[in-house]
Amino acid sequence: MACVNDTQLSETDKKILAVIENKALLTEKITEEVGLPLFKIRSRLRELKSNGYIIEKDSLYQINPTVKEE
Questions:
Q1: Which residues contact 51 (CB under 8 A, 6 or more apart)?
Q2: Cβ distance 63 to 21 under 8 Å?
Q3: Residues 1, 20: contact at Cβ < 8 Å?
Q4: pLDDT digits (tens, 9 = 90+) for 5-61
Q5: Chain CA centroid to CA 39, Å
Q6: How far apart are CA 70 and CA 41, in angstroms?
Q7: Residue 55 phi/psi, 5° resolution?
Q8: Element holding 60 (H helix, E strand)
Q9: What span, in angstroms and rounded, lies between the C-alpha atoms of 5 and 28?
């Protein structure tokens, strides 16, 4: 995973970031690709967004391009 320090991330977080590494996706598509329940994906997306790892625009989630490896 480029440009993300994953030492503080859960396995679910790492899976989500891997899925959106090169493309912006809707929550439902992330859920399909990660294979976990929608409620869990929504919760993790909120947390990743709150911590600055991802950004949301027009209901699409993508890795925050300003996140750098620490």
A1: none
A2: yes
A3: no
A4: 555 899 999 999 999 999 999 999 999 999 999 999 999 999 999 999 999 999 999
A5: 14
A6: 25
A7: -125, 155
A8: strand 60-63
A9: 25
Taking the mean position of all CA atoms in its chain, how far away is CA 12? Answer: 9
The 8 Å CB, 24+ separation contacts for 29-35 are 30/61
Q: Which of 16, 18, 19 is nearest to 2 (CA)?
A: 18
Q: Six-digit token pair at 16?
A: 């989500």
Q: Report the alpha-carbon distance of residue 54 to residue 15 in Å, rounded.
A: 13
Q: Which residue has the tokens 């993300």?
A: 4
Tracing tokens 């329940």 back to the chain, one arrives at 37
* Token representation of residue 51: 């911590």
Asked whether residue 3 carries a pLDDT value surpassing 80, the answer given is no
